[in-house]
Structure formats: structure tokens, C-alpha cells
Specification:
The protein has a single domain, classed as YVTN repeat-like/Quinoprotein amine dehydrogenase (Methylamine Dehydrogenase, Chain H, 7 Propeller). The chain contains three helices and 31 strands. Strands 1-4-3-2-31 form a five-stranded antiparallel β-sheet. This is DUF1513 domain-containing protein. InterPro entries: Quino_amine_DH_bsu (IPR011044), UCP028101 (IPR008311).
């Protein structure tokens, strides 16, 4: 059944459009007129009180155009086959919005049915034909992967379940299987209800929805939240710690299907800087970078030794993407950091209050 847009969501979108739907952004000064206007990055932003946008940016993180959102956005998925991007509402989300990132045209605005919500993330299949979204059942937090047919106008055609409560991020692996960060937390809205009995996992599904692997961490109060893969077989997962506030366990791990989970290492006082929460993750051949908006910092780990090698302050550190063996990091302060560890990093201000995550095109 194809999900219809509620009147409330439609009214909010139309209201937001009054502020300039899909509005192009003028270059910053004369020097900026020579920069590329080719879309390379997409993320969500906060523009003001109850004003939320999706922002298409170039490969420096400088904005090209903004599209208003009916509510606060979270994760973004991109589809280069059709030049589509989809923004998912922040959990417990009520909508996802598909648009053409080259023109700014809105393709689809879908809302969750009353008994469901979105968890803020989704991903396209490798061939671009399918969109997978993390969803939950209101009242139970039962985890669901919604499957949408792109060629049929994003009609919902299937649901995968049976892997746990509270899935957050889903990514697609090179072999078309899905990796899901299952938080294991039953919530009412954003209020957790089962912290003593929560059961997080990193779960793998085949493209047909069969559970093919499932692993956990030694501490059941490490809620697995955000994921990335290294372009090959290794999944990186970032956690939110829901245990004792004075404890500072490892918040990052690596996993290859069929093997055990490997925790990344740092000193307890270094983990304390991350304030119990990892947001975005990206990896190059040698390094792994993870951000913490709650900790106002990001860290870089060696993939070979699994040890922290750099810890940098960044106010409201948000999204990260890997590009040409370096990282681009966004922030709620508007700063975009280019980190070429071990070389010195550089910073520009994008004039965008970046929120949560980035997705590379």
C-alpha cells in the first residue's frame, strides 16, 4: 500500500515553501563564483525556530540549494541512477521526502501510518531499484525494514522483521545484504522503557529479508546506533551508552560477518569526551573517523591498531564523509573541517547549521 501524505505534513511543507522551496543559494563573494556547482554532499540543517531544511552542497561543503522540510530531518540516502535523495525524519519520524538533487524538484512526500514511525535512516540498494527504511511499530518498538519500489513511485512492497527492537541505521553491503544497527531499546516517543533488559545487536539480512548473522557487544547497555562500511566487508558501528553515567566504555567497534566484534580503543578519559554517544562514521583505507555532537568533538582511529590517534574539538560535530583518502566533517556551528590526518586540517565556514549526518553523492 502506498502511504499518503497527511494534511498536517502537507500544510507544514507548504508553509515551509513560503520561505523558498528548493531555493538556490548565491555564492559567497567573488572568489566563490568560480567554485563548482556540482552536487556532492547532502545533509539536513536547522534554519531557525521550527525551520528545517535539506541542503545540497558542493565537494567543499558549501551550499548550492535548500529544500524546506515539514519537520526536523536526520539521515539522507542518495541514488545516483535517478539523481534522487531521500531525507528521513528524526525519530520517531512521521515522513520521508524524496527529491531530485540536481533540480530540487520534490518527487515524493510520504508519511508513516498511525501505527508506525521511521527511525531516521534508510539506504538504496546497490542497483538503485529499492529503498530500505528503518521503521518501528508504535507501542512495541518492533523493528521493521520497509522496502519501497523506486520504479513504482516508491510504493511499499515488503517488510522485513524478526531482528529485534529499535533499529536505527541500515546500510547496504557490496554483496547486496543489509547491515542494521539495532538499538534494542523500547521507547515511548524518545523516552526509553527497557534499559535494564535492552538487547542491541548488529544484524545482517539477505536482500530477501532472511536473518543471516547477528552479533552483540559484551555490555548490553551499549545501544548500537550508527553504521558505515569501509568499502569492503568490514562494518563499523557507533554506540550510545545507556548505562551508568560515570562509566566510559568503548563506543566504536568493527565487525566482519562470521567473526567476532572488535572494539576500538581509547583511554577512559578520551571516551568521556564523546559524552556516551557516537553519531556519524566514515572510513578510508587506513583511518576511521567518528563524530560526537554531544561531546563537541571527533576522533580518528587507526584501522590497523584500532587505537585512537587524533581527538579534535568541534562544536556540534555532525556529519562526516570520506573522500580521496581524507575526511570532510560538518558541524552545527557551520564550520566544515577537511581532515587529512596525519597532515594538518583546514576549516571553512559554510553558513549552514548542519544537523546530524551527511551523505555523499
Amino acid at each position: 500500500m502506498q502511504l499518503m501524505v497527511t494534511d498536517k505534513a502537507r500544510r507544514k511543507l507548504l508553509k515551509a515553501a513560503l520561505f523558498g522551496a528548493a531555493s538556490p543559494i548565491l555564492p559567497f563573494g567573488c572568489a566563490s563564483t568560480e567554485r563548482s556547482q556540482v552536487p556532492a554532499l547532502i545533509g539536513c540543517s536547522i534554519s531557525g525556530r521550527d525551520q528545517y531544511s535539506a541542503v545540497v552542497a558542493d565537494d567543499y561543503g558549501l551550499p548550492i540549494r535548500k529544500l524546506p522540510l515539514p519537520e526536523r530531518g536526520h539521515g539522507v540516502a542518495t541514488n545516483t541512477r535517478f539523481n534522487h535523495a531521500v531525507v528521513f525524519a528524526r525519530r520517531p519520524g512521521t515522513f520521508f521526502m524524496v527529491f531530485d538533487y540536481t533540480s530540487g524538484e520534490i518527487v515524493k512526500l510520504s508519511s508513516a501510518i498511525p501505527t508506525r514511525h521511521f527511525y531516521g535512516h534508510g539506504v538504496y540498494s546497490n542497483d538503485g531499484n529499492w529503498l530500505y527504511a528503518t521503521e518501528g511499530e508504535r507501542g512495541t518498538s518492533k523493528g521493521i525494514i520497509g522496502v519501497y519500489d523506486v520504479l513504482s513511485g516508491y510504493e511499499k512492497v515488503a517488510e522485513f522483521s524478526g531482528f529485534g527492537l529499535g533499529p536505527h541505521e541500515v546500510i547496504v553491503m557490496p554483496d547486496d545484504s543489509l547491515a542494521i544497527g539495532v538499538g534494542g531499546v523500547h521507547t515511548n516517543g524518545r523516552t526509553p522503557l527497557n534499559l535494564d533488559s535492552m538487547s542491541p545487536s548488529l544484524s545482517y539480512l539477505s536482500s530477501e529479508g532472511e536473518l543471516i548473522d547477528q552479533v552483540g557487544l559484551t555490555d548490553h547497555q551499549l545501544s548500537i546506533r550508527h553504521l558505515a562500511h569501509d568499502g569492503s566487508e568490514t562494518v563499523l558501528c557507533g554506540q550510545q551508552y545507556r548505562g551508568e553515567p560515570v562509566e566510559y566504555p568503548s563506543l566504536l567497534a568493527m565487525h566482519t560477518r562470521g567473526s567476532k566484534m572488535l572494539e576500538l580503543e581509547a583511554d577512559p578519559e578520551q571516551w568521556a569526551r564523546f559524552n556516551h554517544y557516537i553519531a556519524s562514521i566514515a572510513a578510508t583505507d587506513e583511518w576511521i573517523l567518528a563524530t560526537s555532537p554531544r561531546g563537541n568533538c571527533y576522533g580518528i582511529w587507526s584501522k590497523q591498531t584500532r587505537r585512537l590517534v587524533e581527538l579534535s574539538s568541534l562544536s556540534d560535530a555532525s556529519g562526516v564523509v570520506a573522500s580521496n583518502n581524507h575526511f570532510l566533517v560538518s558541524s552545527g556551528s557551520g564550520n566544515v573541517i577537511t581532515d587529512k590526518y596525519p597532515s594538518e586540517n583546514t576549516s571553512i565556514n559554510s553558513n549552514i547549521q548542519w544537523d546530524n549526518h551527511w551523505s555523499a553523492i
